[in-house]
Specification:
With about 80 residues, the chain is an all-beta fold. The chain has strands at about 1-5, 10-15, 20-25, 25-30, 40-50, 55-70, 70-75. It has no helices and seven strands.
Length: about 80
């Protein structure tokens, strides 16, 4: 799946990944390939991106919105 993490100032990440975990307002959300379409508000916390080789990268955000559609996750972060 393709992941994009974008802030108003810069693009933090764009690339392929096995999965992503985001800090949803009602709890942590894990997203893998073929996830159902989703739009969710995000709270402050860490976004974990699991790379195709299994390594993990973390990005700190201060809230935002995540959209999942057709194996693409777009995170508009503050």
């Amino acid at each position: 799946m393709t992941i994009e993490i974008i802030t108003p100032d810069e693009s933090l990440f764009k690339g392929e990944a096995q999965g992503v975990t985001v800090p949803g307002t009602d709890g942590s959300l894990g997203i893998l390939n073929n996830h159902a379409p989703l739009i969710s508000a995000l709270k402050s916390g860490k976004v974990k991106v699991t790379m195709p080789d299994g390594k993990e990268e973390f990005f700190e955000i201060n809230g935002g919105v995540a959209e999942v559609l057709n194996n693409k996750v777009i995170i508009l972060a503050e």
